[in-house]
Amino acid sequence: MALLTGAAIGAGVGILYAPDKGSKTRKKIKKKANQAKDDISVRVSRATEELSRTAEAKKEDFERRLEDTISTMSYKADDIIETLEHKLADLKKKNAKYQKDAVIETAGKPKVAAKS
Question: Which pTM does this prediction carry?
Fold first, then answer.
């Protein structure tokens, strides 16, 4: 954009110093200004299209990665839940064994009557 602006200014200055009539010089300036305007319009349009394509590609890439991440997290969550269920089952077995052992230990000891 800076290069194009510099070129337009340089062309304008060059035209102003050219030894032509005023009307001819004004026509040249107008023609160059219109060419510069058209060129800028084309470049802006191309840049906008390129930016849109890039943004769309980035959006699609982000959505794909997000889906992959969610899928991976879902599998990991399932694995964690399964592991916790196994640990809970083991704890229930151990608890049942401790309760059974506690009942056997107290069954062998004489009971003390409560004082009133």
Answer: 0.45
